[in-house]
Design brief:
Elements lengths: L1 E4 L1 H6 L1 H7 L7 E5 H12 L3 H18 L4 E5 L5 H5 L5 H13 L2 E4 L2 H9 L3 E4 L3 H4 L5 H4 L5 E7 L5 E6 L2 E6 L7 H17 L3 E7 L2 E6 L2 E6 L8 E5 L13 H10 L3 E6 L5 H14 L4 E5 L11 E3 L6 H11 L3 E5 L4 H12 L3 E7 L3 H8 L8 H4 L2 E6 L2 E13 L11 E8 L5 E8 L2 E6 L9 H14 L8 E6 L2 E6 L4 H5 L4 H10 L2 E6 L13 E7 L3 E5 L8 E6 L2 E7 L5 E5 L3 H10 L5 E3 L1
Parallel strand pairs: 1-2, 1-4, 2-3, 4-5, 13-17, 13-18, 14-15, 14-16, 16-17, 24-25
Antiparallel strand pairs: 6-7, 6-12, 7-8, 9-10, 10-11, 11-12, 18-19, 19-20, 20-21, 21-22, 23-24, 26-27, 26-31, 27-30, 28-29, 28-31
Helix pairs in contact: 3-4, 13-14
């Protein structure tokens, strides 16, 4: 008998299953070149379906060599256009044409293919997909129990799992035998087939050696070369399902979320429990009669059936946002907000009046706001996000309220320095902890506190700006040290002091008026105790053919340092990426070093 299998049953391993059971033995298996072309294209794209199909063909070749079957390849090689049209049935059509020409049995696990072939009058044998046949079904769930949060499987390594709950997780070995690539490929194929056939599963990504699958409550990532250096499967599931009442701050948060649509960022590190909190918020809002939707890439939130979960529309999350604006939800849970397009969609929907709850990665609560800055116009930030909730170890550790005002930033004294300021207040106490504003051309996120030395954080920023301003009047190094909110000490080379002061102090009076500060001008060598603290470090000096090289050290890379020889200030320079300062011979700074080198025992960087 002539058997013509289609792509679905080749990928599914259905032909070898039949042969191993004693069926099809001695028959002629005819593989359409259309099947080969489709599998080759999938394999070249790094798709698991293509690799599984090619492995099945290798098994059939081995069975043919053993004399169990006859194996032939026939038909025309499909064109690139044919393969592109495969989702529309072009490849299936070519396989049916071959079956008709050979007057053979079309063997498939694709119900649509089977029904069309029967309509065409072909002989057809349909076999249910592998996961429905019970072959190796459910193996991925065998690794899970009620305490397992994630499973990590890799070629040549014993199975491992993260066990516990957020904040109390440990990695454990859960198998005695190292896994083989064949075992993992079989498991990956089962997962993909289950996702394609099951109403509770779908494939989010399948390209370039990576496949992301949502299967019931499991989010599964399959990685293989060339994307990864070995075959790996990672399966993650939620281990805790909480309501909003289970969290601290719940009453205040519930009242804040319910009073009007808000812009909320749920921040925390991976595995901190952000998605669990997002699910709890979604259910609470639904119970308060808000219309709630989700936007997810991939879709892995475990929410009630009456909350519709959306993913990117044809790969474009912006299109999903446009569609949701037509649906008009009261709240949208956005998991996760990470890249610039995500933040822009979040902002666009928020400014359109939709309540937004975004999940984003951040090590601190304030970092979530900083991720938004630069992606959204600064003045619009409080309209986009008015609440930040920071989650750590499954608990709410910090809640910030974001507001907008015009004021003199903390640490500044002059009234004419008033500007728009974003205030970040602790939600529980109402005490401001950060201010965000523009300072020159920079956006500053400034903590409202003084350091242990009594220096305000704003002073360092002010010193940088003052040094830039003074460089207009001084050629050479300038050091600014804030001594109070309205006074600064300027250190310059001693020979530059007269030009800064000017005749009868005219220059310094003008500079003070421009900066709005009282200025005390001193020589660079007078960096006294109580001024800017400096770290001294010995520096080795080497001279090569065309450069003078100062070995400062990799720990100082990128820092601007002052170079001293036996306590005498020489010049200021920036340490390069290799931990050195290189100065071309013949320059004034190089001459200073060479002049000193034979006279002093030690150079210092401060």
């Amino acid at each position: 008998m002539k058997i013509i299998p289609d792509t679905s049953v080749i990928i599914d391993g259905g032909v070898t299953d039949k042969i191993e059971k004693g069926e099809f033995q001695g028959d002629e298996i005819i593989i359409s070149e259309a099947v080969i072309g489709e599998l080759e294209t999938q394999a070249n794209k790094g798709q698991e379906t293509g690799m599984s199909g090619l492995e099945e063909l290798e098994n059939l070749r081995a069975m043919a060599d053993e004399g169990k079957i006859e194996l032939r390849f026939k038909g025309d090689r499909p064109s690139l256009e044919d393969i592109k049209l495969a989702p529309g049935g072009e490849i299936d059509y070519m396989i049916r044409e071959l079956a008709a020409a050979e007057e053979g049995l079309l063997f498939t696990s694709d119900i649509v293919q089977a029904e069309i072939a029967r309509t065409k009058g072909l002989r057809v044998e349909y076999v249910s997909p592998r996961y429905e046949r019970g072959l190796e079904a459910g193996r991925i769930w065998d690794y899970f129990d009620e305490n397992v949060m994630s499973v990590h499987l890799r070629t040549g390594v014993k199975p491992k799992a993260k066990v516990g709950t957020p904040g109390h997780i440990e990695m454990k070995t859960i198998g005695d035998e190292k896994l083989t690539e064949k075992e993992l490929r079989g498991l990956a194929h089962e997962i993909i087939e289950s996702a394609e056939r099951s109403s509770d599963g779908f494939i989010e990504v399948d390209k370039g050696g990576a496949t992301v699958v949502q299967l019931e409550d499991l989010r599964i990532v399959i990685s293989r070369p060339p994307f990864s250096d070995g075959f790996e499967i990672t399966a993650v599931r939620p281990v805790a399902k909480l309501s909003l009442e289970d969290y601290d701050f719940s009453e205040d948060l519930k009242e804040r979320l319910a009073e009007k649509q808000r812009g909320v960022l749920l921040a925390g590190s991976p595995g901190a429990g952000k998605s669990t909190l997002a699910q709890a918020i979604a259910e609470y809002l639904m119970k308060k009669d808000f219309t709630v939707k989700t936007m997810e890439e991939p879709r892995d939130l475990q929410v009630p059936d009456n909350i519709t979960q959306y993913t990117s529309l044809d790969g474009e999350i912006e299109d999903t946002g446009d569609l949701l604006l037509l649906v008009r939800p009261d709240y949208t849970i956005y998991d996760e907000v990470r890249k610039t397009p995500h933040f822009k969609v979040f902002a666009d929907m928020r400014l359109a009046g939709v309540g937004m709850v975004g999940v984003t990665h951040a090590n601190r609560a304030i970092d979530a706001l900083q991720r938004l800055i630069g992606r959204v116009e600064l003045g619009m930030v409080p309209q986009v996000v008015d609440t930040i909730v920071f989650v750590e170890e499954g608990e709410i550790r910090k809640v910030y309220e974001i507001s907008y005002t015009v004021k003199v930033p903390a640490g500044m004294m002059e009234e004419d320095l008033a500007r728009p300021v974003i205030e970040v207040q602790d939600f529980e106490s109402g005490v401001p902890e950060y201010e965000v504003y523009t300072y020159g051309e920079q956006v500053v996120v400034m903590p409202i506190e003084e350091s242990e030395a009594g220096r305000k954080p704003i002073w360092e920023m002010a010193e940088q700006q003052i040094e830039e301003e003074m460089s207009r009047y001084v050629r050479g190094p300038v050091k600014a040290v804030m001594t109070s909110s309205d006074s600064v000490r300027i250190h310059v080379p001693e020979n530059k002091i007269p030009s800064i002061l000017g005749k009868d102090g005219e220059n310094i009076d003008r500079i003070e008026a421009e900066l709005g500060l009282n200025i005390d001008v001193r020589a660079m060598g007078e960096m006294e105790k109580g001024q800017k603290k400096t770290k001294k470090k010995s520096v080795d000096v080497f001279v090569n053919k065309d450069k003078v090289v100062l070995e400062v050290g990799a720990d100082m890379t990128g820092q601007t340092v002052d170079i001293y020889g036996e306590g005498e200030y020489l010049f200021t320079a920036t340490v390069g990426s290799d931990g050195t300062i290189k100065i071309r011979k013949g320059t004034p700074d190089a001459r200073k070093i060479l002049k000193k080198k034979d006279l002093v025992d030690r150079f210092e960087a401060r």
